[in-house]
Amino acid sequence: MLYWTFAWSESNVQSHLADRPDFGRTECASFQAQLEELISFDSELHNEMAIDTCVENFSGAVLKALAASTPKCRLRDDPRPPIPSGIQDEISLKNRLRRQWQITRDPDLKAEFNRLQRSVTRQLNEWRKDKWRATLESLDPEDPSLWRMRKRVMRFATSFPPLVTPRGNRSLRV
Fold it and tell me: Taking CA 153 as the corner, what is the angle to CA 148 and CA 158, rounded to the nearest 5 degrees?
């Protein structure tokens, strides 16, 4: 059995922090199958150049197997539609500017962050209005979709009062 050691420079580590896979969600059987498929063990390691090439191929195979066996995003039980990529890009830019402003406290960055915040809010509101308009236009009075939507919109959420002890304090125990 071969054991490989990897020497990562600080720049390699910094560049891979953002797109680092979530190992808790990696499917181990798929990872192992991908790795066995991508790695060839028939290379002979006689000189330093061959060893370097083999190590590069091995690390590339590990990264490819991880990418193939790890889901790209978490599955959500939420039925909401995903936000369009243009708005997501602007949100990430806004968040990046906010982090820079928090570090530098530059008033120009704060002004740009505030402008982007208003722009993102406006775009999200327009997108939500368009989605709602499309939903309303898709309803048909002939089938039960209209009545299901009316029931969903008109239903009031039942509020439960806080649990109170006989002395009038809120109870933390059930």
Answer: 110
Alpha-carbon distance of 55 to 7, in angstroms, equals 11
pLDDT digit string (tens) for 137-150? 999 989 898 999 99
38 with 64: CB under 8 angstroms? yes
CA angle in degrees (0–180, nearest 5) for 85-88-89: 85
- Per residue in 39-53, pLDDT (tens digit) is 877 667 788 888 888
What gap in Å lies between CA 63 and CA 32, rounded to an integer?
12
- What span, in angstroms and rounded, lies between the C-alpha atoms of 83 and 80? 9
